[in-house]
Write a structure and sequence with these properties.
about 190 residues; alpha+beta; four-stranded antiparallel beta sheet
Length: about 190
Protein backbone atom coordinates (compact mmCIF):
# COMPACT_ATOMS: atom_id res chain seq x y z
CA UNK A 1 0.00 0.00 0.00
CA UNK A 2 2.66 2.53 0.97
CA UNK A 3 4.65 1.83 -2.21
CA UNK A 4 2.21 4.11 -4.07
CA UNK A 5 2.59 6.99 -1.59
CA UNK A 6 5.26 9.42 -0.38
CA UNK A 7 5.39 10.77 3.13
CA UNK A 8 4.97 14.54 3.24
CA UNK A 9 6.90 15.76 6.28
CA UNK A 10 5.18 19.18 6.17
CA UNK A 11 1.63 17.90 6.45
CA UNK A 12 2.63 14.61 8.13
CA UNK A 13 0.41 12.70 5.72
CA UNK A 14 1.08 10.26 2.94
CA UNK A 15 0.22 11.59 -0.48
CA UNK A 16 0.14 9.73 -3.80
CA UNK A 17 3.45 9.56 -5.64
CA UNK A 18 3.83 11.76 -8.68
CA UNK A 19 2.57 10.20 -11.90
CA UNK A 20 3.39 11.55 -15.32
CA UNK A 21 0.67 12.34 -17.85
CA UNK A 22 1.60 9.21 -19.79
CA UNK A 23 1.36 7.04 -16.66
CA UNK A 24 -2.09 8.41 -15.77
CA UNK A 25 -3.25 8.04 -19.37
CA UNK A 26 -2.05 4.43 -19.52
CA UNK A 27 -3.65 3.68 -16.17
CA UNK A 28 -6.96 5.14 -17.40
CA UNK A 29 -6.83 3.07 -20.61
CA UNK A 30 -6.00 -0.11 -18.67
CA UNK A 31 -8.87 0.50 -16.24
CA UNK A 32 -11.37 1.07 -19.08
CA UNK A 33 -10.15 -2.12 -20.80
CA UNK A 34 -10.33 -4.13 -17.57
CA UNK A 35 -13.90 -2.98 -16.96
CA UNK A 36 -14.87 -3.67 -20.60
CA UNK A 37 -13.64 -7.25 -20.10
CA UNK A 38 -16.13 -7.45 -17.22
CA UNK A 39 -18.93 -6.10 -19.44
CA UNK A 40 -18.92 -2.54 -18.08
CA UNK A 41 -18.73 -0.03 -20.91
CA UNK A 42 -17.76 3.59 -20.28
CA UNK A 43 -18.29 6.76 -22.30
CA UNK A 44 -14.80 8.26 -22.27
CA UNK A 45 -14.09 11.81 -23.36
CA UNK A 46 -11.69 11.76 -26.29
CA UNK A 47 -10.08 15.01 -27.40
CA UNK A 48 -8.39 14.99 -30.77
CA UNK A 49 -5.88 17.74 -31.34
CA UNK A 50 -5.19 20.65 -29.02
CA UNK A 51 -8.66 22.19 -29.01
CA UNK A 52 -11.23 21.05 -26.46
CA UNK A 53 -14.09 22.82 -28.27
CA UNK A 54 -14.75 23.40 -31.96
CA UNK A 55 -17.87 25.62 -32.11
CA UNK A 56 -17.52 29.33 -31.27
CA UNK A 57 -19.50 28.96 -28.02
CA UNK A 58 -17.37 26.01 -26.79
CA UNK A 59 -14.35 28.13 -25.81
CA UNK A 60 -16.78 30.44 -24.02
CA UNK A 61 -17.93 27.48 -21.92
CA UNK A 62 -14.29 26.61 -21.21
CA UNK A 63 -13.79 30.05 -19.66
CA UNK A 64 -16.95 29.64 -17.57
CA UNK A 65 -15.31 27.40 -14.89
CA UNK A 66 -13.04 30.31 -13.99
CA UNK A 67 -16.03 31.79 -12.17
CA UNK A 68 -16.14 28.71 -9.90
CA UNK A 69 -12.46 28.29 -9.08
CA UNK A 70 -11.27 28.74 -5.52
CA UNK A 71 -7.72 27.61 -6.35
CA UNK A 72 -6.17 28.87 -9.57
CA UNK A 73 -3.98 25.81 -10.17
CA UNK A 74 -6.97 23.44 -10.43
CA UNK A 75 -8.10 24.72 -13.85
CA UNK A 76 -4.92 24.04 -15.87
CA UNK A 77 -4.56 20.63 -14.22
CA UNK A 78 -8.21 19.86 -14.93
CA UNK A 79 -7.78 20.90 -18.57
CA UNK A 80 -4.75 18.61 -18.80
CA UNK A 81 -6.76 15.72 -17.30
CA UNK A 82 -9.51 16.32 -19.87
CA UNK A 83 -7.15 16.55 -22.85
CA UNK A 84 -5.18 13.47 -21.82
CA UNK A 85 -8.05 11.01 -21.51
CA UNK A 86 -8.49 10.93 -17.74
CA UNK A 87 -12.26 11.51 -17.94
CA UNK A 88 -13.05 7.85 -18.55
CA UNK A 89 -16.83 8.04 -18.19
CA UNK A 90 -19.19 10.96 -18.70
CA UNK A 91 -22.96 10.86 -18.41
CA UNK A 92 -25.00 14.02 -18.91
CA UNK A 93 -28.65 14.13 -17.90
CA UNK A 94 -31.02 17.00 -17.27
CA UNK A 95 -29.50 18.99 -14.42
CA UNK A 96 -26.88 16.37 -13.58
CA UNK A 97 -23.46 15.26 -14.78
CA UNK A 98 -21.89 12.06 -13.48
CA UNK A 99 -18.33 11.10 -14.28
CA UNK A 100 -15.36 8.92 -13.46
CA UNK A 101 -11.95 10.57 -13.58
CA UNK A 102 -8.70 8.66 -13.31
CA UNK A 103 -6.30 10.44 -10.99
CA UNK A 104 -3.32 9.17 -9.06
CA UNK A 105 -5.33 6.61 -7.07
CA UNK A 106 -5.70 3.03 -8.30
CA UNK A 107 -9.39 3.50 -9.00
CA UNK A 108 -11.07 6.49 -10.64
CA UNK A 109 -12.73 9.21 -8.62
CA UNK A 110 -16.51 9.33 -8.76
CA UNK A 111 -17.97 12.78 -9.10
CA UNK A 112 -21.25 14.50 -9.65
CA UNK A 113 -22.15 17.98 -10.77
CA UNK A 114 -25.70 19.21 -10.15
CA UNK A 115 -27.06 22.23 -12.00
CA UNK A 116 -30.13 24.06 -10.75
CA UNK A 117 -32.94 24.33 -13.33
CA UNK A 118 -33.50 27.69 -14.98
CA UNK A 119 -36.31 29.49 -13.19
CA UNK A 120 -39.40 30.48 -15.18
CA UNK A 121 -38.69 34.22 -15.24
CA UNK A 122 -35.17 33.66 -16.57
CA UNK A 123 -36.43 31.12 -19.14
CA UNK A 124 -39.06 33.53 -20.45
CA UNK A 125 -36.52 36.35 -20.67
CA UNK A 126 -34.00 34.17 -22.57
CA UNK A 127 -36.77 32.92 -24.90
CA UNK A 128 -37.82 36.49 -25.63
CA UNK A 129 -34.21 37.51 -26.41
CA UNK A 130 -33.72 34.43 -28.61
CA UNK A 131 -36.95 34.95 -30.56
CA UNK A 132 -35.37 37.97 -32.21
CA UNK A 133 -32.20 36.16 -33.26
CA UNK A 134 -32.93 32.48 -33.94
CA UNK A 135 -34.13 31.73 -37.44
CA UNK A 136 -33.51 27.98 -37.67
CA UNK A 137 -34.34 25.54 -34.83
CA UNK A 138 -32.52 22.69 -36.61
CA UNK A 139 -29.26 24.63 -36.30
CA UNK A 140 -29.80 24.98 -32.55
CA UNK A 141 -30.32 21.25 -32.15
CA UNK A 142 -26.96 20.70 -33.90
CA UNK A 143 -25.30 23.11 -31.45
CA UNK A 144 -24.94 25.91 -33.98
CA UNK A 145 -25.85 29.11 -32.17
CA UNK A 146 -25.83 32.47 -33.96
CA UNK A 147 -22.73 34.41 -32.90
CA UNK A 148 -24.79 37.48 -32.15
CA UNK A 149 -26.27 35.52 -29.23
CA UNK A 150 -22.93 35.62 -27.40
CA UNK A 151 -24.22 37.98 -24.71
CA UNK A 152 -26.91 35.41 -23.75
CA UNK A 153 -24.28 33.03 -22.43
CA UNK A 154 -22.43 35.24 -19.98
CA UNK A 155 -24.94 37.86 -18.95
CA UNK A 156 -25.96 37.72 -15.29
CA UNK A 157 -29.11 35.70 -16.04
CA UNK A 158 -27.70 33.91 -19.09
CA UNK A 159 -27.59 30.36 -20.37
CA UNK A 160 -24.42 29.33 -18.51
CA UNK A 161 -25.01 28.48 -14.86
CA UNK A 162 -23.65 30.93 -12.33
CA UNK A 163 -21.50 29.67 -9.43
CA UNK A 164 -24.52 29.63 -7.11
CA UNK A 165 -26.47 27.44 -9.59
CA UNK A 166 -23.90 24.64 -9.88
CA UNK A 167 -22.87 22.19 -7.15
CA UNK A 168 -19.85 19.86 -7.15
CA UNK A 169 -19.07 16.60 -5.40
CA UNK A 170 -15.90 14.58 -5.89
CA UNK A 171 -14.66 11.63 -3.83
CA UNK A 172 -11.04 12.80 -3.97
CA UNK A 173 -9.32 14.03 -0.79
CA UNK A 174 -8.83 17.59 -2.13
CA UNK A 175 -10.51 20.14 0.12
CA UNK A 176 -11.08 22.63 -2.70
CA UNK A 177 -14.67 23.25 -3.70
CA UNK A 178 -13.64 22.64 -7.30
CA UNK A 179 -10.83 20.10 -7.54
CA UNK A 180 -8.92 19.24 -10.73
CA UNK A 181 -11.25 16.27 -11.33
CA UNK A 182 -14.33 18.51 -11.31
CA UNK A 183 -12.50 21.01 -13.53
CA UNK A 184 -11.70 18.23 -16.02
CA UNK A 185 -15.37 17.26 -16.23
CA UNK A 186 -16.47 20.88 -16.68
CA UNK A 187 -14.07 21.12 -19.62
CA UNK A 188 -15.30 17.77 -20.97
Amino acid sequence: YYDDYDYDCYSRFYKPKYQSVAERKNKAEEYVKKMADKGIIFNPVVISGNKIAEKWWGPMWCTNPERYSDYANRLPRGKSYCKNGNVIDLKIEEGKIQALVMGTAKKPYVLEIDIDPIDQVKAVDISWQCSKKIHNVESLVKGEFPEDMEELFFQEDGLFPSPKEIHFFCMCPDSAKMCKHVASVLYA
